[in-house]
Amino acid sequence: MQSSGCRAKACKGMPPAGFRTDPFTYDHGGTMGRTARLIGIASGTLLALGGVAAVVITRTDAGYRWYLDRMYAGNFPDVNVVMPEQLASEVNAAERPVLLDVRAPEEYAVSHLQGARLADPGAFNPEMLADVGRDRPIVVYCSVGYRSARMAQRLHSLGYTNVRNLYGGIFLWYNQGRAVVGGAGGAERSVERIHPYSFMWGQFITRDGKTYEP
């Protein structure tokens, strides 16, 4: 690999009916989608630890990074990552990378990185990248980096040669106090909220603002 929790009272609303409860689900359609197998040391460890122990460990920065490193190495050793601080510098450059938000529309509507295009993995069409050269820098992200890593592999198979996965996903980006926006296009505005995906996976978020509502 190369580098270039949600308490009920703290989280507004409830997950929409039919919304998946784990961030490893690749298809977010109205019916039950395909759920990726939880493989690799990190995923197995998380399940083996149980909910309480997992929350205690992953709600620390070091614990979350420990989990991420094992998830990426165990499942996506061929996918390059970009650290949040590096991406923060790149998005302010004259030639910024194309940002793809590999989450469901419900998540994107709550908040996303400024200028990111929605690339819902359950409805992705390569034509949405018709204006993007095969060698142009692309950064993909999701909640924790699993769905986006799968998208990175897919883009590589389509001939895109400069694709990186945001380390820690939008969760780590948000935890570090970096900006997210709501709205789309010219209507984007700065917000301080984030979709937690579910109660369990929202435990990775240590900053206030978890909500299911845009």
Features:
single chain, 214 residues, alpha/beta, Oxidized Rhodanese, domain 1, five-stranded parallel β-sheet, two-stranded antiparallel sheet, 7 helices, 7 strands
Biggest beta sheet summary: 5 strands, parallel
- The rough form would be described as globular
- CATH architecture assignment name of the domain at 79-204: 3-Layer(aba) Sandwich
Number of discrete helical segments? 7
Q: How big a fraction of the residues is strand? A: 5-15%
Which whole number gives the mean pLDDT? 82
Structural class of the secondary structure composition? alpha/beta
The CATH topology assignment of the domain at 79-204 is Oxidized Rhodanese, domain 1
What's the arrangement of strands in the largest beta sheet? 1-5-4-2-3
Low-confidence stretches at least 5 residues in length (pLDDT < 50)?
A: 4-10, 18-22, 25-42
Q: Helical residue percent?
A: 25-40%
CATH class of the domain at 79-204 reads Alpha Beta
CATH 4th-level superfamily of the domain at 79-204: Rhodanese-like domain
> Radius of gyration, rounded?
16 Å
Task: Tell how many strands the DSSP assignment holds.
Answer: 7
Q: Kindly report how far apart the N and C termini lie.
A: 34 Å
The topology string of helices and strands comes to: HHHEHEHEEHEHEE
Structure overview:
The chain has helices spanning 41-49, 51-58, 61-75, 84-90, 105-110, 146-157, 169-175, and strands at 81-82, 98-101, 117-118, 138-141, 163-166, 180-182, 189-191. The chain is α/β, with parallel strands linked by helices and 214 residues long. It has a domain at 79-204: Oxidized Rhodanese, domain 1. It has a five-stranded parallel beta sheet. α1 (41-49) crosses α3 (61-75). The N and C termini lie far apart (34 Å).
